[in-house]
Specification:
It contains six helices and no strands. By secondary structure, the chain is mainly α. The chain has one domain. Helix 1 packs antiparallel against helix 2 and helix 2 packs parallel to helix 5. The longest helix is centred in the first third of the chain and has 35 residues. The protein is elongated.
Length: 170
């Protein structure tokens, strides 16, 4: 069981993103071939590709948080003295985690509203709450990854030499 949890921790978002990107690309390829070779456009492909891309984006945010590769403004970080920068990094990870919780709360409300209305997409008849659930799930995963990032940053405070070596490797 520990191996499964460890595998999921290391690979969950990556494999989900790979599958979503593969399906997204295949659908768009089929649509282009259908439209320009056979002069027949598929009515469902654009909408489905759009929804897959939305899911890909939100799961990708979580993957970026896991890798601690999100964009940050180093100029802002460089304003602070070298000794304070690790604390600023911890604070920034905490702020992103708080932001993720705010998005989760807003997405929860949005998903609930769409579930009550029962609205469905026009071309594929997909419940719209499922599309909007991408933000909810993506930011729950992002919150979890941000908590992990806070833990890493705090460990870096305790062992600054290891943090410096890790920065050099990246």
């Amino acid at each position: 069981m520990k191996k499964v949890i460890h595998w999921l921790d290391e690979n969950f978002e990556l494999y989900i993103c790979m599958v979503l990107l593969a399906v997204f690309s295949t659908i768009l390829f089929v649509q282009v071939i259908s439209r320009y070779v056979f002069n027949n456009s598929l009515s469902w492909s654009e909408e489905l590709a759009r929804y897959l891309f939305i899911w890909l984006a939100y799961i990708g945010i979580s993957y970026g948080a896991k890798q601690m590769k999100h964009l940050r403004i180093d100029v802002f970080l460089n304003i602070f003295p070298q000794k304070i920068r690790p604390y600023v990094l911890v604070l920034s990870e905490i702020l992103v985690a708080i932001f993720a919780l705010v998005v989760v709360a807003a997405a929860y409300i949005t998903v609930g509203k769409y579930m009550k209305t029962g609205m469905k997409s026009p071309a594929n008849n997909v419940p719209l709450w499922f599309v909007h659930a991408s933000a909810f799930i993506g930011y729950i995963l992002t919150f979890i990854r941000q908590l992990q990032a806070v833990k890493v940053r705090i460990n870096d405070l305790k062992n600054p030499k290891a943090a410096e070596e890790e920065e050099v490797i990246q």
